[in-house]
Amino acid sequence: MNIAERIAELRSLMRQNDVLFYIIFGTDPHASEYxxxxxxxxxxxxxxxxxxxxxxxxxxEVRLWTDSRYYLQADKELAGTEIIxxxxxxxDTPSPEQWIxxxxxxxxxxxxxxxKLISVNQFEQFNQKLAAYGGIVEDMDLLTPIWxxxxxxxxxDGKVFVFDEKYxxxxxxxxxxxxxxxxxxxxxxxxMISALDEIAWTLNLRGSDIDFNPVFVxxxxxxxxxxxxxxxAEKLTDEVKDYLHTNRIEVAPYAQAYNLxxxxxxxxxxxxxxxxxxQGLLNSLQHSYIQGLQNRQSPILVMKSQKNETELAGVKKAxxxxxxxxxxxxxWLEQHIGKExxxxxxxxxxLHSFRAEQENFIEESFETIAGYNANGAIxxxxxxxxxxxxxxxxGILLLDSGGQYLDGTTDITxxxxxxxxxxxxxxxxxxxxxxHIALASARFPKGTRGxxxxxxARQFLWQNGLHYGHGTGHGVGHFLGCHEGPQxxxxxxxxxxxxxxxxxxxxxxxxxxGEYGIRIENLVTVVSAEKNDFGEFYxxxxxxxxxxxxxxxxxxxxxxxxxxxxxxxxxRVYAELSPLLDKETADWLKQKCKEI
Length: 596
What we know:
Layout: H1 3-16, E1 21-25, H2 41-46, E2 54-57, E3 62-66, H3 71-78, E4 84-87, H4 96-103, E5 109-113, H5 120-131, E6 135-139, E7 161-162, H6 165-168, H7 172-185, E8 190-193, H8 196-203, E9 205-206, E10 219-222, E11 227-230, H9 238-246, E12 249-252, E13 269-272, H10 279-286, E14 292-295, H11 299-305, H12 309-336, H13 344-356, E15 361-364, E16 369-372, E17 396-401, E18 403-405, E19 408-409, E20 412-417, H14 423-440, E21 443-445, H15 450-463, E22 473-475, E23 484-489, E24 503-506, E25 509-512, E26 516-519, E27 522-532, E28 535-542, H16 560-577, H17 583-592
Parallel strand pairs: 1-5, 3-4, 5-6, 8-13, 11-12, 13-14
Antiparallel strand pairs: 1-2, 2-3, 7-9, 8-10, 10-11, 15-18, 16-17, 17-20, 18-19, 21-28, 22-23, 24-27, 25-26, 27-28
Helix pairs in contact: 12-13, 14-15
């Protein structure tokens, strides 16, 4: 079936069930950003491949909400369909629930969704808002009859492996003890965990079920003295089974997580994180014979975000490897561009080959974004073999990439000129660079939140009437998700403060549709700066090691301090990477790192 036929089939099922609005969320039962193919319902129904979206289907309309990172992509992928794009980053765009509320015409209008694909907190928000307008939100999976076992991908079955403590820096027993102490402090005696990265971190296990994320599909129930891992048994090797047994972790079938009476008793008070637990699983918990439930932020979220000394040391090793791979790649590109036909996909493959040469490299941390000229203005651009640009020796290339190493996770963006850049491009790049430096140079008191620092990166663009729609910084996991919380650096109000050991990206950008995109990204970590009469102050330590393209700089716009910052960074890049390179590549890097 094509997209129009799928929508028609869904509408037929809606009519049969007296449903006026059907909502499809762009996530999986584990609130994952990236998900296995079997849960990509929005992509199946609409053809839109972006990670973040919500679709609402009515008898006469289909609307898809996504944010500014995906506008150009959505315009392209939804073209020729009846689907209306809702640009949710724009201030006057109603949210899905606001739009549904405004469209409700009949009392007790039935609104259906699959409760396994919406978080508890989001479901409650939908329910409260829509009930006030006469809407009745019901758990009803109407897409599975269309996207059924015959044509739907199966649950992933990758093997799980033990993540050695020499990389993790803390034993599973130590983590379980800390988590249980936190659970007990709230009066609870159990915790239901559905977030895949939290399960992997807690158990010091990793997998390969989700592209670019070394996690495995499962649920975890922590009890006072033991735990239950709900996972398909064929995913476990004998080594992992022994490891779980040693750590007092029982194994049960994945689907059994929705029938918990066997694993909980009448004295159980179960803690869960409503931002990540799905509503379908909560429905099951509410039907279990237990004493009570508590909805609050998972203590694992903060613990996981504060990297220990071993994790930070590992990330720094990964940065050296990443720096070597990128240096080799950019030198290769300079030597080959214009001498042979190269596409964006060719560049992605070549960069992968340089990363794959590095010890402990597993895979990319996300699909490499190689955006040449106008494609660089598509924030989350995805080049495809049959739909990509030829990269020529003129214009601008934006390259956003990262690696998953056993040592840690990397994420870096560099923008380079492939020919003499225009005055506009140099000005744009320099304004982005000034913001990048301002954020990296910040000192801030303990308790500062990321949204309080965000303007440092945007100030020079704003002063010139320029703006970018994405966040300035996201948290990064340790051999886990490239995007993690609770910390971030955005304009949105995030109550979670920046903590010692947090890793964030520093990535301001600027995008001119149809021309080029500019983004500069390093990873930085929060370290102690000083303690004085005014309190404790933190600062950033830059982790990423890769040169900037100084040919894109308008030096007249830089202060002396900003020039010195770039020169000091380049000295460090050369000092730390040159011993790992052959002489010719080291000499080439020295020229790239020369003082400005």
